[in-house]
C-alpha cells in the first residue's frame, strides 16, 4: 500500500484558499490577532490587582502580564537620556545634578508596575526638586516651568499606574497635591511656566478619572461574581435542606404507620391472647403508651419541619405500585418512556418503596427538562441475591432537534436522589453516556441492615 495516492488532497499553501474556499490573507490574520490582543488587554485592565501584585498580573496571556514592564522600560529608556540633555543644555543644570534628577524622575516608572503609590512619592519629590533647581536658572522664557516636558510625560504615565491600582480617595489626594504644587510655583514665579502647571493638572485629572473608572468597574464585576458564587452556594444549601425536610415529612408517614400498628397491637393483645398474666398486660399497656407518646412527638416534629403556608398532605405516599401511572403521565407529556418491572419484587420496605418512586420521578423530570423527546427506559428489578432493589433510568439523545427547557443544570435534582439513597444506605451512580444520553442507577437494600 502506498503512502499517498493521486487523489490525496494536499494542504493549501499559505495565502491560498483553504477548505472553505476563502483565502486567509496576512492582513486578516493580523486584524484577528489585534482584536484578540485588544480584547485580552481590556479584560486585564478591568481586572483589579491586589497590593504588591504587578499590574495586569491576573491576565491569562503571558504577553499581557509582561506588557506593563515593557511599557515602563520604554518610557525610562526614552525619557532618561532626553531629560539629562534638556536639563543640561536648555535649563543649564550641572551634569551630575541633571543625571540624578533625571534618574529620580524616570526610573521609578519601573517600580510603578507593582507599587505605583510609592513610585509617585519619589517622582513627585524629584519633580519638585527639579523645579527648585531650575527656578533661578537663566533659561529662555518660552521653556515650560516648573515642570519640564519630559517630567510631564513621565508623570502622566505614572498616573496610569496609580489610577489602575489605588482607591478613589487616594486618587483625589494625588490629583490635589499635584495641582497645589503647580499653583504654588506659579504664584512664586508668575512670569514663567507658560501655563504648564494647568496642563498637567487637567491631564492628570483626566487620566486618574478614566483609570479610576476602569478600576471601579473591575471591582464591581469582581464583587458581583463573588456575590453570585455565594448566592449559588446558598441556593444549593437551601435546596439540600428543603429536600431533607421533604424526605423527613414523607418518612413521617411511613414511621407513623408502623407506630400506629404497634399501638393497636399492644392495646388489643390482652383481648386477643387469653390467660395473659397481669405483668404481661401491664407491659403491653406500657408499650402502647410509649408508642402513642412517640407518635405525638413525631407529629410535633413534623409541624416544625412543615413550612408556614404548607398544608398537610391528605393522600397516601406513592410507591412502586404507582410507577405505571407515573410513566403513563410522562408519555402523555410527549416523552417516549418504556417501563420494565419485575413481576415479583418481594417485600419492599416502605422507605425503599417511596425512595425508588421519587428517584424515578426526578429522573424523568430531568429528561423532560434537559432532553425533551429522548427515548427513555425505566427498569426496576431485584439483584440476583435478592438483597437489593435495582432502579435504572436511561435516556438516549433527543431524536429530534428540539430546544431543551434548561440548558445548564444546577444538579438540585441529583441532590434529592443522593439524599434518598443515603437515607436507605444504598448506592447511586449517575453520569452521561457516550452517545449523549444520561444514566441514573440506584441500588436500594431490601433487607434491614443492622449497624
Automatic annotation (TrEMBL):
Domain called Signal transduction histidine kinase subgroup 3 dimerisation and phosphoacceptor: residue spans: 243-308
InterPro entries, per database record: HATPase_C_sf (IPR036890), HATPase_dom (IPR003594), Sensor_HK_TwoCompSys (IPR050482), Sig_transdc_His_kin_sub3_dim/P (IPR011712)
SUPFAM superfamilies linked to this entry: ATPase domain of HSP90 chaperone/DNA topoisomerase II/histidine kinase
Keywords (A to Z) from UniProt: ATP-binding, Kinase, Membrane, Nucleotide-binding, Phosphoprotein, Transferase, Transmembrane, Transmembrane helix, Two-component regulatory system
Origin: domain of life: Bacteria
Membrane-spanning segments: 66-88, 147-164, 171-189, 195-214
EC number in record: 2.7.13.3
Domain Histidine kinase/HSP90-like ATPase residue range list: 355-447
Keyword check for Aminoacyl-tRNA synthetase: no
CDD domains (alphabetical): HATPase_UhpB-NarQ-NarX-like
PANTHER family, per the entry: NITRATE/NITRITE SENSOR PROTEIN NARX-RELATED, NITRATE_NITRITE SENSOR PROTEIN NARQ
Protein name: histidine kinase
Organism: Streptomyces coeruleoprunus
Lineage start: Bacteria, Bacillati, Actinomycetota, Actinomycetes, Kitasatosporales
